[in-house]
Write a structure and sequence with these properties.
- The complex is a heterodimer of chains A (546) and B (328).
- Chain A starts with a helix and ends with a helix.
- The radius of gyration of chain A is 26 Å and the shape is globular.
- Chain A has 546 residues and is α+β, with helices and mostly antiparallel strands.
- In chain A, 33% of the residues are buried.
- Chain A is built from 19 helices and 21 strands.
- A 7-stranded mixed sheet of chain B has the order 7-8-9-10-11-18-19, with helices on one face. Chain B has a 6-stranded mixed sheet with strand order 1-2-3-4-5-6.
- Classes of the chains: A alpha+beta (546), B alpha/beta (328).
- Chains A and B meet through helix 5 and helix 6 of A and helix 6 and helix 8 of B.
Chain lengths: 546, 328
C-alpha cells in the first residue's frame, strides 16, 4: 500500500504551508513505512533523483497517439497547466478503461527500482505499450507521481533542510550529522536508510561524503558597527564552490550541488593525489589567467563543467585552479569547531609545506585565497568597488572567531556584492510561464534603442511582485500585436529597470551583447519608451568596466 | 447564410440581445427589458425597467438586492409570448432557480444555455435536455483538462481535511449563493459531524433556500467575537472576497481552502494563496459541454463566457459541428 501512502504524503506536503506541520507529516510517514520505501521517498523528496526517463514532449506525443488526441489541443492545455506530467495526468482522467487496477498495491520501491528502470531496456514500441499498460493498471490517484518520475520533474515544496530536520527529530540526533549523512550520492536501499537513522555517530562511515557547506548571507547594516579587525576579508570569486577531499589517499571533488566532478577535472585530482596528507578543503574552482593572476570569465568555466575526460588541449586552453578558502579536516581530524582565524593559520601552514615540496609542483593548479586587509569600512567599500577589475563579484566577509557550521547560518559569513549594473529597457515580448506561473505571461524580453529601432537585449522573469505580474499580464493581453505560439509581441510602451551582473560582447545576440543574471528591479511607469536606454549606453557601461 | 444582424439573438454592446422582442439576456447595463438566467451578480445589473425570470431566481434576487425591482416570473416550461416569439425557462442545473432560455420563432428554435452543469446537485433542479437549432452555450471550462470528480468524493475530501486537523479552524471559501448550499448539502452526508458556521451573506442565502423548500443543514451565523476555542475543529464557510485583508485576523490557528473548478490546476492552486483547493464547480466540465452540444442536436453553436477557441476548433475537427462567431 505504500505508493498510496506516498501519494498522500505528496498531497499533504503540497498543501501544508507550515514548516512544523510538514515535519510532523514526514515523521509520521517515516514511522509507518518500510525502510526501503522511506529510502526512496527521501531520494525523491531531496531531489537526488532528477533522471529523466522520457521527455515531457515524448509523453505528450505518446498520449496523443494512444488516445487519438490532437497535439495542438494538448499544447493549448499545457499553456494553462505549465507541466507536462500534470497535463497528461489531467487528460488521462476517465480515459483508462481497464476496471481491474492490478497495480493498485504496487510499492514505491517496486515502481522505482523495477517498473520504471525496466522501461529503459525496452525498444521504443515496447516502451510505449508498457507505459500505456501502466497507465491502465495504475489507479488514477497515482498517475501524477508516475508521470512526474518518468519526466524527471518530481518537485514538491520541501527543502533538503526540512527532510534533514524531520529525520533528526525522528531519532533525536543533531541536524548537522543528518545533513552530513545526506551529502553526496544517495543510493536508495535499506542500508542507506538505516545508515541515515543510525543513532551511533561513526566518522568512518562518513568517509566518502563532503561536509555540509557553510553559506554566506547578504550583508547587513549592523555589521558596520563592529570593529573591522573582527573579520576576515576575501574576494568573492564567480566559479564553482567545491570541497576538495583527500581521505585514505583518495581525492574527490564535490560541488555545492553535491555532484562528484572528478571526471571533469582529472588534472586537479592527479596533482592533489601527490600530496601526502589527508584533508578536506573548502574552496572555489575557476578557469585562471595565470599571467594576470585573475579569474577568467565564468563562461570559460562552463566549457569545462559538463565535459567529462577533457582532452589535453582542452586542459591547456581552459586552465583551472582550485583556490582554497578553508581547511575543515586534516589527517582525519575534523577541525570545523576550531575558530576561523586558527583554521586559517593551519591552512597557511599546510599550504607552504605542500608548496615547498617541489615534487608536488602544485602551484600551477592550487593556491589558497589571498586575504584583503581593509583599514576601515570605507576602505572595505573601496575594495568592493574595485572587485570587477579582477573579475570577482565583491567581497566575502567572515567572522574570525566563528566555527564552520552549515547552511546559511546568520551572523557568520556575509557577501558584499558589487552593485548590479542597470539599464532601462522596453518590454517587447512575453511568453507564458510554467509551473506555478502557468496561464500567466511571466517571461519577458526587453529591448534597447538603436537609432529608431528597438533591439532585444535580455530576457528576464524574476523581480516582479505577484500583484505586478497579474497587472502586467492583463496589460499584455490587451496590447498584443501578434501571437507566435506561446509568445506574444507587444506594443512597445512599458519601461523596466533591468539589473544584471555582467555585460560582455556576444556574437550570438543581435544586440551584440550578453548580460548575466538579468532581472527586473523596477517597473518604471514614470518613464516613456523614449526615456529607455540605448545599446550605446550598454556599450559605454561595458567600456567602463573593462 | 444570414448576416449577423439577421440572427434572432445576437451580440449588442457585449450582451445577448433579441431585437425582434427588444429584450436582453443577463445584460450588464440598464435596459428596458431583461431576461435573467440566474441570481449571480455577474448576470444581473441594477436599473432595468423590467426583469423576467423564474420564481426562484426572483426571490433570491430580491433577497440580495431588495424588493425595489419590478420582476415578472414564470414557472419552468411555461411559455410566454413577446412580439410573436415563444419564450420559456428550463432548468440548467447551475444553482437554485437557474435556467436555460428557449426562444421559438417561425419554426426556428434558439437556446441560451445560461450557466449550466450536468452533475448531481440536490439543491436545485437537474439540467433538462432541450433540443434546439441554435445553441448559445457558456464555455467557462472549455478545455479537456477540466473533468470533475463526483461531488461526494470532494465532500469526503473536505471532511477528511477538517478532521485531520482537529486543533485547527477550517475556513472554506466559496461563492455564497449556490456553491455554499451545495457544499452544505454534500458535507452533511459525510462523516464530518462537527459544527458548521457560515458568514452572514451565506447564512442569508441558506435561509432563502430553505424557504424555497430546499433542505439545507442548519449552520451557525459566525459572530466576530466567537472564542477561538469554540471554533477548533469546526468548519466555517466564507465568501472569497474575505480571503484577503484583515478579516482573517478574527481567527487563530486556521487552515484555508477554496472550493472552485479552477482548483483542479496545481499552478492555480499554488497561486491562489489558499492552503488547499477543492475542485468542485457549478459549471459543466469539458465532457459536459460536449454532451450538451451533441444531445441538443443544434446545427449551429455559439459560445459566450470563457475562452472558446480550442473547443470550437475541436468541434470543427472532431465532431464536424460548425461553431459560429458573434461579432462582438
Amino acid at each position: 500500500m505504500s505508493l498510496k501512502k506516498f501519494s498522500e504524503l505528496f498531497e499533504d506536503l503540497d498543501s501544508i504551508n507550515s514548516t512544523n506541520n510538514k515535519i510532523e507529516v514526514l515523521k509520521r510517514y517515516f514511522l509507518s513505512n518500510e525502510p526501503i520505501d522511506n529510502s526512496w521517498a527521501i531520494y525523491l523528496l531531496t531531489g537526488k533523483s532528477n533522471k529523466r526517463f522520457i521527455s515531457g514532449r515524448y509523453l505528450k506525443n505518446l498520449f496523443s497517439q494512444i488516445y487519438e488526441y490532437p497535439q495542438w489541443l494538448i499544447d493549448t492545455c499545457y499553456l494553462k497547466v505549465g507541466d507536462s506530467a500534470e497535463v497528461i495526468t489531467l487528460l488521462l482522467k476517465n480515459k483508462t478503461t481497464l476496471r481491474n487496477k492490478k497495480l493498485s498495491n504496487i510499492s514505491l520501491n517496486e515502481l522505482l527500482s523495477k517498473t520504471i528502470p525496466e522501461l529503459s531496456k525496452l525498444s521504443e514500441e515496447e516502451k510505449n505499450l508498457q507505459i500505456k499498460n501502466i497507465w491502465e493498471r495504475l489507479p488514477e490517484d497515482y498517475h501524477l507521481i508516475f508521470n512526474k518520475i518518468l519526466t524527471g520533474t518530481f518537485r514538491v515544496g520541501v527543502s533538503i533542510g526540512l527532510i534533514t530536520k524531520s529525520i533528526a527529530k525522528l531519532i533525536n540526533i543533531d541536524e548537522e550529522v543528518i545533513s552530513h549523512r545526506l551529502m553526496g550520492n544517495f543510493k536508495p536501499s535499506i542500508n542507506s536508510y538505516e545508515f541515515l537513522i543510525n543513532k551511533n555517530i561513526n566518522l568512518q562511515e562518513l568517509n566518502s561524503k563532503p561536509f555540509p557547506f557553510l553559506l554566506a548571507n547578504t550583508i547587513e547594516d549592523k555589521i558596520f558597527k563592529h570593529s573591522i579587525n573582527d573579520f576576515q576579508f576575501e574576494w568573492k570569486y564567480d566559479g564553482i564552490r567545491m570541497q576538495l577531499i583527500k581521505r585514505s589517499g583518495n581525492v574527490s571533488l564535490w560541488t555545492r550541488g553535491q555532484e562528484l566532478v572528478n571526471e571533469s577535472f582529472p588534472e586537479l585530482v592527479e596533482k592533489m593525489s601527490y600530496i601526502k596528507d589527508n584533508f578536506v578543503l573548502d574552496g572555489e574552482l575557476l578557469v585562471w589567467d595565470f599571467k594576470e593572476q585573475v579569474a577568467f570569465d565564468f563562461s570559460l568555466l562552463q566549457k569545462r563543467i559538463n565535459r567529462k575526460s577533457p582532452t589535453r588541449s582542452i586542459q591547456i586552453k581552459y586552465p583551472i585552479i582550485f583556490i582554497a578558502y578553508d581547511l575543515l579536516e586534516i589527517n582525519g581530524r575534523d577541525i570545523r569547531e576550531i575558530k576561523l582565524e586558527n583554521r586559517r593559520i593551519e591552512l597557511e601552514k599546510y599550504f607552504s609545506k605542500w608548496q615547498n615540496k617541489t615534487e608536488n609542483n602544485i602551484s600551477d593548479i592550487f593556491k589558497i585565497c589571498d586575504l584583503i586587509f581593509p583599514k576601515d569600512w570605507t576602505d572595505a567599500l573601496t575594495y568592493k568597488e574595485k572587485s570587477r577589475e579582477n573579475n570577482t563579484e565583491g567581497l566575502i566577509i567572515k567572522k574570525k572567531n566563528s566555527i564552520y557550521s552549515s547552511g546559511r547560518k546568520k551572523g557568520i559569513w556575509w557577501k558584499y556584492k558589487v552593485d548590479p549594473m542597470q539599464l532601462d529597457a522596453v518590454l517587447i515580448y512575453a511568453r507564458g510561464g510554467s509551473g506555478r506561473r502557468a496561464g500567466l505571461y511571466t517571461d519577458y524580453s526587453f529591448a534597447l534603442w538603436k537609432d529608431q529601432e528597438l533591439i532585444k537585449f535580455a530576457s528576464a522573469y524574476s523581480g516582479l511582485t505577484n500583484i505586478e505580474i497579474k497587472e502586467l499580464d492583463k496589460w499584455i493581453r490587451k496590447n498584443t500585436i501578434e501571437k507566435f505560439g506561446p509568445v506574444r509581441s507587444l506594443k512597445p510602451e512599458m519601461v523596466f529597470e533591468i539589473s544584471f551582473e555582467k555585460i560582455q560582447i556576444s556574437k550570438r545576440h543581435k544586440s551584440g551583447i550578453a548580460v548575466r543574471f538579468p532581472r527586473i528591479t523596477k517597473w518604471r511607469k514614470d518613464k516613456k519608451i523614449n526615456d529607455a536606454d540605448s545599446l550605446e549606453n550598454a556599450y559605454e557601461l561595458m567600456k567602463k568596466i573593462s | 447564410m444570414r448576416t449577423k444582424q439577421e440572427y434572432l439573438i445576437r451580440y449588442k454592446d457585449g450582451n445577448l440581445y433579441c431585437e425582434l422582442a427588444d429584450i436582453w439576456i443577463d445584460p450588464s447595463k440598464p435596459v428596458k427589458k431583461a431576461l435573467i438566467t440566474h441570481a449571480h451578480f455577474d448576470h444581473f445589473t441594477f436599473g432595468c425597467e423590467e426583469y423576467i425570470s423564474t420564481k426562484e431566481t426572483a426571490i433570491l434576487l430580491k433577497e440580495r438586492v431588495g424588493d425595489n425591482i419590478k420582476i415578472k416570473t414564470f414557472e419552468y416550461g411555461e411559455e410566454f409570448k413577446i412580439n410573436g416569439i415563444n419564450i420559456s425557462f428550463h432548468p440548467s442545473g447551475h444553482i437554485l432557480g437557474s435556467s436555460q432560455i428557449r426562444f421559438v420563432f417561425a419554426e426556428e428554435k434558439w437556446l441560451v444555455s445560461g450557466d449550466f452543469k450536468l452533475q448531481k446537485d440536490e439543491t436545485c433542479k437537474q439540467y433538462e435536455l432541450v433540443k434546439t437549432d441554435y445553441l448559445i452555450s457558456e464555455c467557462t471550462f472549455g478545455l479537456p483538462i477540466y473533468k470533475w470528480d463526483e461531488p461526494n468524493k470532494i465532500a469526503n475530501d473536505i471532511s477528511k481535511w477538517i478532521t485531520n486537523s482537529p486543533e485547527k479552524t477550517s475556513l472554506l471559501f466559496c461563492y455564497s449563493l449556490g456553491k455554499a448550499q451545495r457544499l452544505l448539502n454534500e458535507i452533511s452526508q459525510t462523516n464530518f459531524k462537527g459544527n458548521i458556521y457560515s458568514h452572514g451573506s451565506i447564512h442569508k442565502m441558506n435561509n432563502s433556500y430553505r424557504e424555497l423548500g430546499i433542505d439545507i443543514k442548519d449552520t451557525i451565523k459566525i459572530e466576530n467575537k466567537k472564542k477561538i476555542d469554540e471554533l477548533k475543529g469546526s468548519l466555517i464557510l466564507l465568501p472569497p472576497s474575505l480571503s484577503k485583508g484583515s478579516y482573517l485576523k478574527n481567527f487563530k490557528n486556521i487552515q484555508t481552502a477554496f472550493a472552485s473548478g479552477w482548483m483542479s490546476i496545481r499552478a492555480l492552486r499554488k497561486r491562489s494563496g489558499y492552503d488547499k483547493g477543492f475542485a468542485i464547480s457549478d459549471h459543466a466540465d469539458w465532457d459536459g459541454i460536449l454532451e450538451v452540444i451533441k444531445k441538443s442536436e443544434a446545427k449551429n453553436v455559439f459560445f459566450h463566457h470563457g475562452d472558446s477557441e480550442a473547443l470550437s476548433k475541436y468541434l470543427d475537427e472532431k465532431e464536424s459541428i460548425n461553431v459560429l462567431l458573434f461579432g462582438k
